Amino acid sequence: MANRIIARLKAFPAAPAWFTRWWGDLNTHQWLAPSFTGLAIVYMLVDIRPNWWPGGVRPDWWLVEPVVPFNFISVLGVMGLVGMAIHLYTTCLRLHEPVVSKDPRRIYLIALVSMATFGIFWLLESLHASPYLMPLPAAALLLKVFVNPLVAIVTTAVIAVLGGVAHGSSGLGPVIVGMGASLAAVFAVPRIRQRADLARAGLVAGLFGAALTSVIGMISGGHPMLWGPHALSAIAGGVGSAILAVGILPYLEGLFGITTTFKLMELANPSQPLLRYLLMKAPGTYHHSILVGNLGEAAAEAVGADPLLVRVGAYYHDIGKTKRPYFFIENQMGMENAHDKISPHLSALVIQAHVKEGLEIAKEYSLPPDVTRFVSTHHGKSCIAYFYHQACEVDGPEHVEEDHFKYPGPRPNTKEEAIVMLADACEATVRTLKNPTPEQIEQTIRRLINKRLNDGELAEAPLTLAEIEIIAQTFLKIVQGLYHQRIEYPDQLMKDLKREPKEKKLGSLPG
Ligand SMILES: [Fe+2]
Ligand SMILES: [Fe+2]
User: Fold this and answer.
1) What distance in angstroms lies between residue 295's CA and the mean position of ligand 1's atoms?
2) What is the distance in A from the centroid of ligand 1 to the CA of 341?
3) What is the CATH number of domain 269-481?
4) SS3 of residue 271 by DSSP
5) How far is the CA of 401 from the centre of ligand 2 (A)?
6) Higher pLDDT residue, 253 or 379?
7) Ligand 1: distance of its center to the CA of 467 in Å?
8) In the predicted model, what is the mean pLDDT of residues 452-481?
């Protein structure tokens, strides 16, 4: 029946454009329909309170007094409100958050957080508590951590409006304060990386909410005894939000398998078993990974990518080298080259294998998927040129298949993965230069980046040419600084040594 009505509407010539787009949105984001239907049901249960109970008698535990009369018009109003919320959501996600809108984990999390907030709203009402206690900033903080600030702002605004409208003019104050406190929570800290950031954001939200409550109270000419307790409730709501967010975060992380900054901070800790294993088995690779992390982090800051994700991705990108560390130049440290004894074809197979073996180790150590992707994408589908040319020399180019010397991919498809790919190539190559001049370093870095670009390795990554140039300049600045210091070091040492007796004399002054 419903399908027939939709088919009729779709065929209706007067309104095809808007309906087709709206229906397309709803089809693309099918998860939205159940989420918002759930929201509508919770909403109606909480605020319209129908006498749907068996025998038409509400049980005793249903403490809340009806606010919205239960009749056809009010139900129609609620459905209209929820429909508008669906429209706002689908349009916002389609236009501004296409990646989030295709990620069911994040969508279900948004739905769960929204409904839980409604649940708390209902609970507070049941207990006749102040609506200013409403922990809406907790929803804002969780959505900022798990999704992003825009989704956090839009979602909390929708929750606040849906929650407040049912209460008519009396709901307006809590709606404004809830939205203001949520905005303050989202903007209080630029990046939430640890529990202290959540605590600070909660406190800022509480203080901002209290200030807003006071200002609204003053404007409406109410006595301070009327709005004062609400202001205190707003502070308690903000601080309570931080406590709630800290407590619930690990469970949501486990439930939805989303990598948060908290998890990334944990993975960046050098005491992590897998990092310690890398240091023990392949110290050269460990050092290389740290340098790639430093280069990548600076570049990510410069182009607005996630610096922490880049750093962690860089730390783990070469974990596959722990299987056969001595086949990689950074771990040979004066030992004979293991590749001298085998054919270029076999050498290429061994080198290629570090990606596949890295994925196996990542699975064994339960690395999150967002970090594991750096293992598979850091070489893209590039060719192991050194062994390819060696094979061409030995067997003749006509007998060598270039594809056999290529990594399996996939290519990077986020800014962060592309940055690690470029930082990895630059670090590995610049390290092999002996006493390079700044010009040589610049030439090498630009050549490497242009090669990746021309080979299409960056074709799937959302980086602009301007951003690639910024990345190149950031790498240059860091690498040249590193080598400049090393080159200058002997002169500086001589100067320091000549000055030493004077300093010693100063140092030996009594005091
Ligand atoms: Fe690698
Ligand atoms: Fe690497």
Assistant:
1) 16
2) 22
3) 1.10.3210
4) coil
5) 24
6) 379
7) 23
8) 93
Spatial distance between the Cα atoms of 319 and 362, rounded to a whole number of angstroms = 8
The alpha carbon of 446 and the centre of ligand 1 are apart by a number of angstroms equal to: 20
The per-residue pLDDT for 296 is 97
For the chain, give every residue range classified as CATH 1.10.3210. 269-481
Separation of CA 326 and ligand 1 centre (Å) = 14
Task: Assess contact for 175 and 161: CB atoms under 8 A.
Answer: yes
Q: Find the 317 Cα to ligand 2 centroid distance in Å.
A: 6
Give the torsion sign (CA, 291, 295, 296, 301): positive
- Distance (angstroms) between ligand 1 centre and the Cα of 340 equals 20
SS (H, E, C) 454-468: HCCCCCCCCCCHHHH
Q: Give residue 376's pLDDT band: very low, low, confident or very high (50, 70, 90).
A: very high
Q: How far away, in angstroms, is 263 Cα from ligand 2 center?
A: 22
Q: What confidence tier does 337 reach under pLDDT thresholds 50, 70, 90?
A: confident
> How many alpha carbons fall within 13 Å on the CB side of residue 179?
15
Residue 10: CB atoms within 10 Å: 12
On the 0-12 / 13-18 / 19+ scale of CB atoms within 10 A, 464 is exposed
3-state helix, strand, coil in the chain (%, to 5): 75, 0, 25
Residue 183: is its pLDDT beyond 60? yes
Distance 314 CA to ligand 2 centre (A): 8
Indicate which ligand has the atom closest to the C-alpha of 292.
Answer: 2
Write down the pTM of the prediction: 0.74
In percent, the amount of the chain with pLDDT more than 70 equals 79
Distance 424 CA to ligand 2 centre (A): 5
CA of 261 to the centre of ligand 2 (A): 23
Per-residue model confidence as pLDDT tens digits over 135-171: 899 999 999 999 989 999 988 988 888 777 656 556 6
